[in-house]
Amino acid sequence: MYLTPQNILLTGATGLTGEHLLDRLLSEPTVQRVLAPTRRALAEHTHLDNPQGDLLTLLPMLGGKQDIAFCCLGTTIKQAGSQEAFRAVDYDMVLAVSQRARDLGARHFLLISAMGANPKSSVFYNRVKGEVEQALIAQNWPQLTIARPSLLIGDRLEPRFGERLLAPIMRWVPGKYRGIPACTLARALWRLALEEGEGVRIVESDELRRLGR
């Protein structure tokens, strides 16, 4: 069974996957309004509400009933500048978004996490991803979907050296470890958003590729 969402909160709309997902949402006739707070202005659209500024400052000011919330936020330790700054985005900000989405009535929260997310991992990046997953699960969402993509493939405004280096190789790695195009991930997220369900669903990269075909 599929839901027909009308009002959607999207954070991370200027990121690699967020851009593809925003295009998808704005092309869907069932979507009445996309609320997408960003630092820089997005292209105007009849169904887009684009408040601009610092996300933590904007969150309390966001209004309107939301049906579904997508969180496409994410950075790297190199981009953030420190482990503390990385955690502020990939943990603290994600939870702030989820709480505000819940306040606005959303019943389904979809997060882009990462393959290898594990709160007990010795790798800091994977540990933070696992910890934020745990924290979201503890919020007892009516419906929570956690996507764990492998290496994302696509052209970023600010290229990541590691992704550019590994992308040609990761296209041919078998199974869930194979890289996934951001446009494929965006299509998978939209399909997952339309599925009615309850509880927590964790979707690994190979299934995301299948859903996004």
TrEMBL record:
Which GO CC terms are listed, alphabetically?
A: membrane
Keywords attached to this entry: Membrane
**SUPFAM superfamilies to which the protein is assigned, alphabetical:** NAD(P)-binding Rossmann-fold domains
Q: What is its main location?
A: membrane
Please state every residue range assigned to the domain named NAD-dependent epimerase/dehydratase: 8-113
The record's listing under Pfam families reads:
Epimerase
Localisation per UniProt entry: Membrane
What this protein is called in its record is Oxidoreductase
Q: What organism is the protein native to?
A: Pseudomonas turukhanskensis
